[in-house]
Amino acid sequence: MRIFDCDAAFGRGTTPLPGELETAEALIAELDHCGIEQALVWHRDARERSAGQGNARMAALKGHPRLHRSCTVMPYTSRETFTEAELFEYIQMEDIRAVRAFPLTHCYLLDTISCGDLLGLLSAYRVPLLVPLGEFHNQWQGVYNLMRDFPHLTLVLTETGCWGQDRYFRPLVRNFPRFFLSTNRFETAGQLKSFVNDLGHERLLFGSGLPFNNPGGYISLLARADISDEARQAIASDNLAYLLGEVAL
Amino acid sequence: MNLRDAFLKGGGCPVIDAHAHMGPFRSIYLPEAGRDSMVAGMERAGVEAIIVSPHDALFGDTREGNAQMLEAVQACPGRIYGYCTIHPGYPRETAGELDRYLHQPGVVGVKIHPASHECPVDGPDYAPVMERLEAERGLLLSHTWGSEGTCGARKMRVIAEQYPNIRLLLGHSCYGAWAEAIALAKDFPNVYLELTAAAHVYGLIEWMCREAGSQKVVFGTDYPWFDPAVYIGFVTFAHIDEEAMRNILYNNARGLLDEQLAKRK
Lengths: 249, 265
Ligand SMILES: [Zn+2]
Known about the structure:
Chain A is of the alpha/beta class. Helix content of chain A is 42%, strand content 14%. Chain A starts with a strand and ends with a helix.
């Protein structure tokens, strides 16, 4: 099983963690320990200090072809970050193929009023936007509103909660073909098999959640799940590789 | 082949899950909630035995849930063991429930949930349970969470000090208050760290083993909430040696179970 991780971070943040991965090299060593080939990476500064500082830290990933950079976005309204045009120029130049947002921590609403232009462009260029569930104001209601307003947005929801949230996310999967879930915190017994049986394997992406989560659980989940090898491989890496390949900048 | 790869290929070592439930639960989609599907799931994941307290015992009429527990224990001897659940909101029932269940073969201890039952673990309504378990050197699985509150690390320390003979499993290892929970397991010979909900935290199992020792860490999953395959992965991908993995997955719970089972022969 080849694994491409959609959700790995490195760097030191505000709160010390039981397992720290301060450098890109430390992250690579852990990926090796787990047998993870590639990862779509962010720096803890992007969430815990500021988006700009986190994005600057992405420079540490240059020269590590297994680590793919992702850029943290914010709305331009307060003029602290890229304009939409600058953002797309930057990610095109840097060959960045996915962006992240942390609206609750960064104190804005990920909606039409605050981020309409940004979300419209992400949708048009098919750039995946990764957001932890806990970063939505009003949690699932926030996700529902976003997908209702931007039905063509490629949204990857990470840290979706370990307590079988299927009643919330299955309607999103059914209604929005560009809505995806990361496997980190996908821990409920029998949930993966049931999901794949009912909804197929296309909307799940392997995510480790490093250095917050122990990737071993999600690797073992995939390896042992009673699903086809095709589904296993798709979730482990192919779905994410396909999404990143689809980006039309 | 190392233990981690053996598990990934469907082998591994025996596993005991010391924190399991049974039946549907209001707020979680649980595709394997029923007893038969749980036993089938154990078979698939390579789990030899589980110790259960049904959801009905914790969140419904405790007497009905305890009866369900005994039925499961009797239907699946050696695979399903039981905890007698005590609800401190009905203190007049405590002695009767303990008398009815604690001597039964396969019922190996008591489960309490001070958070859901909104009762401090060191309060008077739990005292009869604690005294009985202290006298019998019994096994207690308590829900524990954080540092403060009805069953945070601070109150669990009071219990550990007052009742040194209770075999005390800190369910969820006082989630979030890791340093305090680990100190409890280190300071008291009969206090154990239980992994349900906690095991996903990267680096935590290593910390527990380093400070408290792998003999003080016990595998549990809230099954049918969490997938045993996921939790086995949390243990086998941790940076600990294989002896530590076997202690966590099996040996520690086996020792605790055997001690209780010997008294019931
Ligand atoms: Zn529990």
